Amino acid sequence: MQNKIPTIQEMARILKLSKSTVSRALRNHPAIGLRTTQQVQKLAKELNYEPNQMAISFSKKKTMSIGVIVSSLDVYFHKAVFGIEDCAYANDYNVLISQTRDEYDIEKKVLETMRKQRVDGIVASISRNAPDIEHFEKCKQYNIPVVFFDRVPDVPNINSVWCRLDISTVELVSYLVSKGHEKIALINGPDTLPIKNERLKGYYDGHIKNGLKVHEHFIKVADLSTVGTYEAMDQLLSHRVKPSAIITFNDYMSLDAMHYLRKVKPGRYPDIDFVTYSNLPTTRYLDRPPLAYVDQFPYEQGKLATEVLFRQLNGLAHPETTPPENLIIESKLVIY
Amino acid sequence: MQNKIPTIQEMARILKLSKSTVSRALRNHPAIGLRTTQQVQKLAKELNYEPNQMAISFSKKKTMSIGVIVSSLDVYFHKAVFGIEDCAYANDYNVLISQTRDEYDIEKKVLETMRKQRVDGIVASISRNAPDIEHFEKCKQYNIPVVFFDRVPDVPNINSVWCRLDISTVELVSYLVSKGHEKIALINGPDTLPIKNERLKGYYDGHIKNGLKVHEHFIKVADLSTVGTYEAMDQLLSHRVKPSAIITFNDYMSLDAMHYLRKVKPGRYPDIDFVTYSNLPTTRYLDRPPLAYVDQFPYEQGKLATEVLFRQLNGLAHPETTPPENLIIESKLVIY
DNA sequence: AAAATAGTTGCAACCGGTTGCCTGAAATTA
DNA sequence: TAATTTCAGGCAACCGGTTGCAACTATTTT
Questions:
Q1: Phi, psi at residue A69, to the nearest 5°?
Q2: Which end of chain B is more exposed for a tag (fewer CB within 10 A), N or C?
Q3: B191 to chain A, minimum CA–CA distance in Å?
Q4: Fold topology of A62-161+298-325
Q5: Which bases on strand D have an atom closer than 7 Å to a protein beta carbon?
Q6: If one looks up domain A166-295 in CATH, what number appears?
Q7: What is the DSSP letter of A261?
Q8: Is it true that domain B63-163+298-329 has CATH number 3.40.50.2300?
Q9: Nucleic strand D near CB of residue B24 (< 7 Å)
């Protein structure tokens, strides 16, 4: 009942040609005559021939697909994926997405799966609690280039694209100072080893630049859970000296922090101004949204990282003339 | 410099065995002796042998991967993808995700790509404005089963998993009535042909059940843009008789509608209660969130759809005893 | 002791393309 | 006219596994 799926050999049989000729004719190989080429392409169209991608991948040792590893497809990385897709599709590549849920073990597993699937290259943002990147070592052996983005491990000799936050954080502090704030707190994310801690650096630099003294108890670290943020807020606010503005690690944290201040303990403390990083589109619907945020341009990061990846892919044959690339883009302070 | 990637033939050469023996030994084939099997597996471990998935896919005509087609990886479909992944990974399958951005042309393109990649099966939520599903026809020829979920075309003889909304919508109306509302509006999504319009049905049924008359001007249709929602709200509120409660198509729309009422035209109209469908986690941070929402269980839908897909995949050899499945799950009214 | 059986392993085809090299015919040049 | 070049197409190996079947050895049965 079901139609047979046409293959090259089938078409060769029909046209009484060899399959190599058909293969070449389909790709407009110059060695094949015009008449033959047209004949073959006509038949291919009639039969709805579609090349078997599996066979091509196998024979060319190229899957024409790249792997993307992110912690989670939240709004932020979703934007990054769009950038990656746009670049990949423009190069006729497919995209395989895997989420690590920020767990090192899952990251190792999905990386292994991708290697076994023989993706041609990988764009990755490492897990927050990955202690190392040795699991990426094997990609070298398999000649699979890797470009890290956004969360970039702090080791030499890798491809990376990331968005520096220190300068914008200084601006963030300056902005708050210009609004009259002098007691500025920072609730940072977990302090994991392989990733740079630029929010903290910018926080210090911003205080120095504005001639403010840093109060160490204004600096808190929270895991990224709601409860963790509540605890950090609790500690922060239980101190004698209370901040008048808080810089939070990201928008999810700012939501929790604001919620704690205004809903969990309403009226207990004077209101506080918030500023944050990245940006959830839904934040703008809040009655009192954060005053400002630092845009980290996830779309652009994803796109750039993929461009780097393709340069590495094309340069695989000449590794000596294709050194690793490390691109840094500047984040931007956005005031509502 | 780079290590060679070990293959079966390489190991066969080292052990002076045939490659078929090595191949079988690696998979614990009973016909292979214990000593040989152990020997082979020992060497495989030493060499870090990893089977070439491309070669396996090619020779078995199975890619061990399924395709997922959704309009966008927003929060809602993101949950669905988790359900799909959980089920797929449990069956040692990989997942390829593609977003259509709700455009028919992109849907056709990604579907074609997946077919060329020879995914073993597809789980799809069709684009909102897809006029038909004929582009899925070719999957039959390629023996690629398709399971539609969430947005299910209303045609016979397909696999589908969806969540009925009519009963919950009746409950939604009843809930609002119990809160004293008698003038209840509905801002629905675009009325596209292939997908059932259960919100509207439930809206009518709910009015009948509660002995309320339906005012046609309380029923609006908006595209899913912010501006579209603003316009619908504007029309709704410009009428002499104003609603005291509004049912919105989804949470994004409720955010825009509330924003319009409270921020764009503040104080102009008496406040209105909102209820909605699905649920953004960030909604709870609003000062006046919707009172209730209808949970559509995207995770469960995704998981169930994938289970159906695997049953279809396993039944491919016996299509006569594997009829299409159509599962319907019940949505649930959740009151904050 | 011959025959049947069970347990191992190898041979070779196959999956559907790609590609280096060869061949034969036609066209051009010497 | 013979030699050379060009053009068009075919042959066969290859990518790295899987699999049906044959073959060989050792053991058991008759």
A1: -120, 115
A2: N
A3: 25
A4: Rossmann fold (3.40.50)
A5: 7-12, 14-20
A6: 3.40.50.2300
A7: I
A8: yes
A9: yes
